[in-house]
Each structure stands twice: as structure tokens, then as C-alpha cells.
């Protein structure tokens, strides 16, 4: 936050003391010359301070340099006039004799005006004809001054019209500068810029001083003698002018506020031309009853002509803005309304409390047209779609293009039923082929329907407003797209489930990092010996609010959103560490870990497996990585390369859910897996269905011929277990042996199983 800067205490004090001393000396003839010298030095100090402030300014440096230059011009012209008169006390005779120097004192005001325009332009995006505004104000002030002061001053002083006009112009210009600074404040919305009020104050003080000096001139008689003392009025005028210079220095030292640039808008834009027009009309009305000087009338008509030019420019700007406004709500490609127009219409309907239906239309197979025929043909198709949709919609509907191949339809006064009916009409219209580049192109659409009714509006605005209604239509559209196209109506329950799923995804990301994933293990039993030979690691999520979640609750979501790599690394780390703990406890069991599709497409997976196994100190042959047939066939070449890398680590590979996927014998030939894992759909029927039993027996023979073992999962009872042994199955897994158990229960369960086997009893099931 910037800190306001003031005039330094010592220089300000010295300035005030010298100014007071010069005022005291000026009223005595013997010291009038000394007073004039001191005031000259003070003016040099003001100009120097302005120049230094401009050099140090980080913003608006050019503006303050112009203020410094304008002040220097005024000071030099005034000092030259004093030198020509031989005294700082100037009377009408001196002014008439040195009229060119009087005119020279006006040369600083264009610089002041340029400085204020520079300040304004830095704050506004676009300023229309600021120089014309200034010229209009100058013409009006000149006309007013001519009407009020020209004849009286000529009669009182005997000065010529040119000299009087130059003398009158100074206070007029001061007033113009002050008004312009205040107008700039209004254009900027009265933002906290302390510099502009100080500039206005400086020129207001200067205007008061110059008007007072003008009145003094009107009452003066005879030339001033060299070295004559100044009267109280003249002293006050000089002091006021120096105070105005000090105010300018103070303004230059203020920090520039960090404000965004604004657009000039509202009544302040018309302040200058309207003010000039009203002033001109007032002067012309006065001329009807009291004859004004010819110069005043000419200047007034010139001001009116300038206002006419300003109005013409404003009218041109209005036409341009209307065109820009139309373009702002129009889609360039199709000529339809765009997203901005859509929200404007929705906001208008909501403000009126009307029912509003919204359709979101997404074209199917549009990308194929772009890819095969080119983007220019895609543009042709979009224009044709826009024309056809325009013809099939109700008259009051607003058709908009949101971008790409997405269109939206606003249906004022329509509910869900009306929206669904219009959506069906749109589907029918789009079912007919389009001719694009001489080819017949078929495109369908996925359409989402949403609506907000008057009852909803009465109860309160839709959460999120118009954007929420568009989101609802978008949600319904994606439901239709996942179904292959057609029409879908927004369903709050489905949407809530999707949002819950999204929230669950955020929780899952945080949960992985927080170590909330835990493993449960299910035993794998050798049918020949009855001993436990392995454990399959099954991931669970210990959710802080929802409790222990099974893999079905989150693994699909993790696969969809790219989190399976992180989950697999965590499962590998925990499973390998647990296998090491079992071995250290005298239980050398292998551990099996499932790999998802995305894992087999990750070329870095073998390296991570090797690192995890090596870091834990586990024999890699004790690790089995389970992959499914579907996983292998999603991208066979990449999957085979990854599997080959996994085998290179020394770990075994098991083909999980065998018999439910593609069941291609080619990958069995090429893939040196150590295990086939028979799906539970065959296991459960093997004891009572001979065809299923034959498949199990054939699979066992195939596995053994290829040097693999056959593991059957889903064993629920002793009869199934016995039958699988007869059919040649090597190992089994299922609830008949044990349910999946937490890692902390595995060793205890194994101990109980050994004790029960020695006593001829079946071990109890672990605590679930």
C-alpha cells in the first residue's frame, strides 16, 4: 500500500518564510525590488521542484513534465513582462505597450491542458476528441469574457481589444484547467487519486488571483513608477499565485494510485459539449435583450459549431458501438446468437419470473467431418445445421452457438415436457443428411434438456443462476452422449451421484497421500498338500467418513481419472513389506497383486517393481502380478513389452479371470506366465455341471502343458473343492478357506489353521 508524500518539512517551511518575507517587503518602496527578487527565486524553486518530481515519477512522468514546462513558460513570460515594465507592479499602460508579452503568458496553458489529457488517457481505455472538448470550452469562456469584460475594461483602462482579450484569457484558462481536473475525477468515478483535486485546487487559486489582478487593473490610474511599493491587493495576488504553484508541487509528489483502466461512460462523457451548448444558448439569449460585443457573438457561434462537430463525432461513435454491441452477441461463423446473448436472454427470463427451458445440442460425428473433409467443410456443416435448426424451432426460441459443435436453445415459457418435445423435433431435423462438399453427411445429436419454472424462481434463484441452468443441461447432454445420442432430461439424482463421485475423487487423491489405503489378504491353498502357499492382496480404502470401502467403490473411478499408478505403487509397497514380515515370522508365502489396464501401458512399471522389491529385500519370485485378459488385449504390443519387463524383474505373472475375456491362445503361447487363474463363473458350476467341469479339466491340461499352474477362485464349499481337485486344479481360493482379512490377522489365522489341522478341525473364519 503506497504512502502519501507531502512537501518536505524543511523546504516547505523555508518556502513559507520566504513568501511571507517577500509579502512584507513588497509593501515598502525601499524594499520592493528585494521582494520581487525573492518572489522570482520562489518561482524558480517551484519550477525546479516540479521538474524533480517529474523526473522521479514512476507513472505519468510525461504529464508532470508538461506541468513543469507550462509553469516555466508562465514564469518566464511574467518575469519578462516585469523586466520590460521595470517593476513587478504592472498597470494598463505597461500592458498595452507590451501586448506581445501578455500573449506569451498564455503559452503555458496548452501545456497544462496536454498534461491533464495525459493523466486522463492513462486511466481510460479510449478518450474521444479531448482537444475538441478543450477548444469548445475555450471558445465559450472567450465569448463569456468578451461579453462581460471587453467593453467595461476598455472604458476603464483604455487598453486595446487584443490586450484586454489576452488579460481576460488568463483567468478563463485557469477556470478551464480547474473544471477539466474535476471532470476527470468524475470520469474516473471519483477514484482515490489525490493528485487531481490538488491540481483543481491549484488552478482555482490561480483563477482567483488572476481575476483579482484583473479587477485591480480596472481600477488602476497612471503608470507605475520604478521601485514603487505594491498595494495589499497586488501582494495578495502574488502570494496566491505562489501558493498555487506550491499546490501543483504537492500534487506532483503524490503517488499514482494503482487502479485498473476504465471505459469512459455515462453523463461525464457529455459534460463538455452539453455545458458549452447551454452556455452558448444563454449568451445568445442575453444578446436578444442586451446587445453583446460582436467578438462575443462570433465566438459564441463558433462554440455552437464546435458542439455540432462533437455531436457528429458522438453519433459516429454511437453507430460504431451499436455495431460492436451486435457483434458482441453474435457468432461470427453462423450468424447466430453467442454465449453472451444466451446469458442475457436467460437473465431476462429469470428477472421476469418466467419458466425457461434450455436445450444443449452437441453434434455427433462432427469430428469425423473435420478430420476427413477438412475444417472448412466442417464450417459449412455448422452453417447448414444452424439454418436447419432455425427452421424447426418455435418462433420465440433463441438459438445460440456456444462454440465448436455445441448449440443451445432457450425456450421462454417452456418446461421440461415442452423442452423434450422441441428436442425430439431437433433430432428429427438433424436425421436428414446434409450435403457437404458434394457428399451426403449424416450427423446426429446428443441433447440435454433442463428447465427452471416459476415455482423455483418464487422459492429462490437457481443455485449459481444462469450458469447453473446451463450446467444442468450440459449434465443431461453428457448422459445422452454416453447412451449413444438422443435426448436426456436432467435428473437431479443422477447429477447428485455424479457430484458425489467427483467429491469422492478428491477424497481419494487426498486419501492416497494420507495413507488411507489398506490391504486385506485372501489365502491361496495348494489342493495336494492343503497348505497355504500364497496370499492375494486386495485393496480397501479406510475413508474418514464413509468407513472401510471395497475396491468396487473407487477403483473404477481411479482408473478413469488416472490414479491407478499411485494406488498400484502403494499396494505393491504394502504387499511386499507384508510378505517380508511373513517370511521373517517363518511363513514364506508368495503375495499376489492385481495390475490395472493403465499399469500395463506404463513402460516405467517394471523399474518401479524392481525398486520396491529390492528396497524391501524380498525374493522377487515371491511376488505374483495378476493381469486380466482384457487388460492384455487393450493394447497388445505395449502390454506385452511391459509384461516382458515385469518378468525380467524375476516376479511371476498370473492371468486373472481366465475364460471371461478374449481367451486368445496366441498370448498364452507368447506370454511365459506362471499361473492361470480360473474365473469363479466356472468354479461355482464345476461340481454340478459337466460342461463346466469339462472346461475346467481342459483348462488344467492346457495350463500344465504350458508349464503353468491352475488356480481356481471363488471356492465356496467342500464339494466344489473336492471336484476341482479331481479335475486337476492345483490351487484354490475362496470363502471356503477364508474371507479376505486385514494384514494384522494373517499370522494369527495361519497359526489357528495349523492348530486346527493338527486337531482335525477347520480353522475359524477371521473377524470381518
Describe the structure.
This protein is of the alpha/beta class. It folds into 3 domains: 9-315; 339-490, Reverse transcriptase/Diguanylate cyclase domain (Alpha-Beta Plaits); 503-757, TIM Barrel (Alpha-Beta Barrel), CATH 3.20.20. Helices cover 60% and strands 12% of the residues. The chain contains 30 helices and 17 strands. An 8-stranded mixed barrel has the order 8-9-11-12-13-14-15-16, surrounded by 5 helices. A 5-stranded mixed beta sheet has the order 2-3-1-6-7, with helices on both faces. Strands 4-5 form a two-stranded antiparallel ribbon. Helix 1 packs antiparallel against helix 10 (232-252) and helix 2 (32-56) packs antiparallel against helix 3 (61-85). The protein is elongated.
Query: Which stretches of 5+ consecutive residues score pLDDT under 50?
Result: 220-229, 454-464
Query: What is the arithmetic mean of pLDDT?
Result: 79
Largest sheet: 8 strands, mixed, barrel
Question: Which structural class is indicated by helix and strand composition?
Answer: alpha/beta
Distance between the termini: 62 Å
- Main sheet strand line-up: 8-9-11-12-13-14-15-16
Form type: elongated
Task: Report a brief summary of the structure.
By secondary structure, this protein is α/β, with parallel strands linked by helices. The chain is 60% helix and 12% strand. The chain contains 30 helices and 17 strands.
Amino acid at each position: 500500500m503506497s504512502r502519501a508524500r507531502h512537501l518536505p518539512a524543511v523546504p516547505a517551511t523555508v518556502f513559507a518564510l520566504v513568501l511571507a518575507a517577500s509579502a512584507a517587503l513588497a509593501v515598502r518602496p525601499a524594499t520592493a525590488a528585494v521582494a520581487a527578487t525573492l518572489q522570482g527565486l520562489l518561482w524558480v524553486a517551484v519550477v525546479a521542484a516540479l521538474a524533480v518530481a517529474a523526473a522521479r515519477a514512476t507513472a505519468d512522468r510525461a504529464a508532470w513534465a508538461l506541468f513543469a514546462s507550462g509553469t516555466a513558460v508562465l514564469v518566464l513570460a511574467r518575469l519578462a513582462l516585469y523586466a520590460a515594465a521595470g517593476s513587478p507592479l504592472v498597470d494598463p499602460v505597461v500592458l498595452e505597450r507590451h501586448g506581445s508579452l501578455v500573449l506569451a503568458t498564455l503559452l503555458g496553458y496548452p501545456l497544462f491542458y496536454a498534461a491533464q489529457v495525459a493523466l486522463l488517457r492513462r486511466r481510460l481505455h479510449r478518450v474521444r476528441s479531448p482537444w475538441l472538448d478543450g477548444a469548445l470550452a475555450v471558445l465559450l469562456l472567450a465569448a463569456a469574457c468578451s461579453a462581460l469584460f471587453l467593453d467595461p475594461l476598455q472604458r476603464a483602462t483604455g487598453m486595446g481589444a487584443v490586450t484586454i482579450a489576452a488579460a481576460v484569457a488568463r483567468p478563463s484558462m485557469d477556470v478551464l484547467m480547474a473544471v477539466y481536473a474535476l471532470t476527470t475525477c468524475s470520469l474516473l468515478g471519483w477514484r482515490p487519486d489525490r493528485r487531481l483535486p490538488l491540481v483543481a485546487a491549484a488552478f482555482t487559486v490561480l483563477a482567483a488571483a488572476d481575476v483579482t489582478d484583473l479587477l485591480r487593473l480596472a481600477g488602476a490610474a497612471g503608470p507605475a513608477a520604478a521601485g514603487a511599493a505594491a498595494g495589499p491587493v497586488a501582494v495578495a495576488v502574488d502570494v496566491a499565485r505562489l501558493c498555487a504553484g506550491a499546490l501543483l508541487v504537492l500534487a506532483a509528489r503524490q503517488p499514482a494510485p494503482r487502479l485498473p483502466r476504465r471505459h469512459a461512460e455515462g453523463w461525464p462523457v457529455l459534460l463538455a459539449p452539453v455545458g458549452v451548448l447551454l452556455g452558448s444558448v444563454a449568451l445568445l439569449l442575453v444578446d436578444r435583450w442586451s446587445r453583446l460585443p460582436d467578438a462575443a457573438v462570433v465566438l459564441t457561434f463558433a462554440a455552437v459549431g464546435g458542439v455540432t462537430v462533437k455531436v457528429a463525432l458522438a453519433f459516429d461513435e454511437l453507430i460504431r458501438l451499436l455495431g460492436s454491441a451486435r457483434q458482441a452477441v453474435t457468432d461470427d461463423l453462423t450468424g447466430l446468437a453467442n454465449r453472451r446473448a444466451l446469458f442475457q436472454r436467460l437473465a431476462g427470463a429469470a428477472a421476469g419470473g418466467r419458466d425457461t427451458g434450455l436445450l444443449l445440442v452437441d453434434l455427433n460425428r462432427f469430428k469425423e467431418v473435420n478430420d476427413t473433409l477438412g475444417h472448412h467443410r466442417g464450417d459449412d456443416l455448422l452453417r447448414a445445421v444452424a439454418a436447419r435448426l432455425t427452421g424447426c424451432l418455435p418462433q420465440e426460441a433463441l438459438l445460440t452457438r456456444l462454440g465448436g459443435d455445441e448449440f443451445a436453445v432457450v425456450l421462454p415459457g417452456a418446461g421440461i415436457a415442452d423442452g423434450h418435445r422441441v428436442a425430439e423435433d431437433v433430432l428429427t431435423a438433424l436425421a436428414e443428411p446434409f450435403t457437404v462438399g458434394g457428399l451426403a453427411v449424416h450427423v446426429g445429436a446428443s441433447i440435454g434438456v433442463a428447465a427452471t419454472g416459476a415455482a423455483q424462481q418464487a422459492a429462490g434463484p437457481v443455485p449459481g443462476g444462469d450458469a447453473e441452468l446451463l450446467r444442468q443441461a450440459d449434465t443431461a447432454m453428457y448422459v445422452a452422449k454416453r447412451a449413444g445420442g438422443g435426448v436426456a432430461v436432467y435428473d437431479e439424482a443422477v447429477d447428485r451421484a455424479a457430484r458425489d463421485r467427483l467429491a469422492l475423487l478428491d477424497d481419494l487423491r487426498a486419501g492416497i497421500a494420507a495413507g488411507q489405503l489398506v490391504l486385506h489378504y485372501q489365502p491361496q491353498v495348494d489342493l495336494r498338500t492343503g497348505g497355504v502357499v500364497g496370499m492375494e492382496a486386495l485393496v480397501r480404502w479406510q475413508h474418514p467418513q464413509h468407513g472401510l470401502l471395497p475396491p468396487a467403490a473407487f477403483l473404477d473411478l481411479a482408473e478413469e481419472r488416472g490414479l491407478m499408478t499411485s494406488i498400484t505403487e502403494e499396494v505393491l509397497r504394502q504387499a511386499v513389506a507384508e510378505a517380508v514380515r511373513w517370511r521373517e515370522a517363518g511363513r514364506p508365502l508368495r503375495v499376489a497383486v492385481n495390475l490395472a489396464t493403465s499399469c500395463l501401458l506404463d513402460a516405467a512399471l517394471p523399474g518401479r517393481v524392481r525398486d520396491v522389491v529390492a528396497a524391501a529385500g524380498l525374493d522377487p519370485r515371491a511376488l505374483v502380478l495378476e493381469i486380466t485378459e482384457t487388460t492384455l488385449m487393450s493394447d497388445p504390443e505395449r502390454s506385452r513389452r511391459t509384461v516382458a519387463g515385469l518378468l525380467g524383474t524375476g516376479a511371476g505373472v498370473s492371468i486373472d479371470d481366465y475364460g471371461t475375456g478374449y481367451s486368445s491362445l496366441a498370448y498364452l503361447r507368447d506370454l511365459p506366465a506362471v499361473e492361470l487363474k480360473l474365473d469363479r463363473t466356472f468354479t461355482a458350476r464345476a461340481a454340478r455341471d459337466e460342461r463346466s467341469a469339462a472346461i475346467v479339466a481342459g483348462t488344467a491340461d492346457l495350463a500344465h502343458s504350458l508349464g503353468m499352474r491352475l488356480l481356481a477362485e471363488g471356492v465356496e464349499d467342500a464339494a466344489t473343492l473336492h471336484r476341482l481337485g479331481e479335475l486337476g486344479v492345483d490351487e484354490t481360493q475362496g470363502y471356503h478357506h477364508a474371507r479376505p482379512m486385514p494384514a494384522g490377522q494373517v499370522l494369527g489365522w495361519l497359526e489357528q489353521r495349523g492348530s486346527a489341522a493338527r486337531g482335525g478341525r477347520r480353522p475359524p473364519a477371521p473377524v470381518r
